[in-house]
UniProtKB/TrEMBL annotation:
One of its GO terms (molecular function) is hydrolase activity, acting on ester bonds. This is GDSL esterase/lipase EXL3. Belongs to the 'GDSL' lipolytic enzyme family. One of its GO terms (cellular component) is extracellular region. InterPro entries: GDSL, GDSL_lipolytic_enzyme, SGNH_hydro_sf, SGNH_plant_lipase-like. It comes from Lactuca virosa. CDD domains: SGNH_plant_lipase_like (cd01837).
């Protein structure tokens, strides 16, 4: 962080990468509030974070000196000070496509916006309208979603494949992403960071389902992610020059993730094709449970389960992102 710059709050939207436990509080099978999730978090507490310890939400909040842990907005025990300094509205397994959230019983992105609108009203009560305006103007807003639209929807079920080829489905998702960001801006967000899709073809579950005999990275998944990311980057860049301009930054996580997976030893990893939980090839959410064996040395693994990275992997990617994008974001 540059000197003399403060960020009052961190607020997150999206899927399981940024979900701090919202999925604990409504009916869905997509949860992580049981062991071995959280095995390295606050004395092995499974809070609903889809990893072994901290998520990118926590790590970024800590790095920009907001707080160490970001709570889930739906947590009924949330404290007023935590509300003021930021929350996460993210829901594991949601997507830009409303069908994805229906398939997975997750909170749709537009519903997350409605929750944010309710949150603003709560801030008015807690700190008044003037300070609420300061929080909205200067806080950091994170958005990470889209992976489940491909992995859990397009490449798994036939509905969208019949309606769209990959380029047209990407265009459909980009229109949803653009609408979300514009609506978020209308509600007052002024420092918005939208993450690209990761290298979804290299997730262990994608390797298992579509990587062939040797479980290689699924090339069709990665091609879709690259096409989507190029379109998303262009759309977000154009939003910055609209009238009025939308203050948003595109953050590429595809490239650093793929670099680590191609050169794991350079980053202190040995195993990148499967997760630490169970066989690591298919286990995620309810399939990664107390009966699953876990790896003996988690620091060797890039992935925690078959979908989500470990805290160590997240730390490396977060540090990379902050070095590249922090000045651009804070200048918004």
């Amino acid at each position: 962080m540059p000197e003399n710059v403060t960020v009052p709050a961190l607020i997150a939207f999206g899927d399981s990468i940024l979900d701090q436990g919202n999925n604990n509080y409504f009916p869905t099978f997509i949860r992580a509030n049981f062991p071995p999730y959280g095995m390295n978090f606050l004395g092995a507490r499974a809070t609903g974070r889809f990893t072994n310890a901290k998520t990118p939400t926590d790590l970024i909040a800590e790095k920009i000196k907001v707080k160490e842990y970001v709570p889930a907005y739906l947590n009924p025990f949330i404290q007023d000070q935590d509300m003021i300094t930021g929350v996460s509205f993210a829901s594991g397994a949601t997507g830009l496509d409303p069908l994805t959230s229906r398939i997975n019983s997750a909170i749709p992105m537009m519903d997350q916006l409605q929750m944010f609108s309710n949150y603003i009203r709560k801030l008015h009560v807690l700190v008044g309208k003037v300070e609420t305006g300061n929080i909205l103007n200067n806080s950091l807003f994170l958005v990470a979603t889209g992976s489940d639209d491909f992995v859990d929807n397009y490449f798994t079920y036939p509905i969208r494949k019949v309606q769209y080829d990959i380029p047209s489905y990407c265009n459909y998702l980009i229109s949803k992403a653009s609408t979300f960001v514009k609506e978020l801006h209308k509600l007052g967000a002024r420092r918005v960071v939208v993450f690209s899709l990761p290298a979804i073809g290299c997730m262990p579950t994608s390797r298992t389902l579509s990587g062939g005999k040797y479980r290689s990275c699924a090339s069709i998944y990665n091609k879709a992610a690259k096409f989507f990311n190029k379109k998303l980057s262009s759309e977000l860049y154009s939003l910055r020059f609209r009238n009025p301009p939308v203050k948003v930054v595109f953050a590429d996580i595809y490239t650093p993730m793929l670099e680590i997976i191609k050169n794991p030893q350079s980053y202190g990893f040995e195993i990148v094709d499967r997760g630490c939980c169970g066989t690591g090839e298919v286990e995620v959410s309810w399939m990664c449970n107390a009966l699953s064996r876990t790896c003996s040395n988690i620091s060797n693994y890039f992935f925690w389960d078959s979908f989500h990275p470990t805290e160590k992997a997240y730390k490396i990617i977060v540090d990379h992102l902050l070095q590249i994008y922090v000045n651009d974001v804070l200048s918004l």
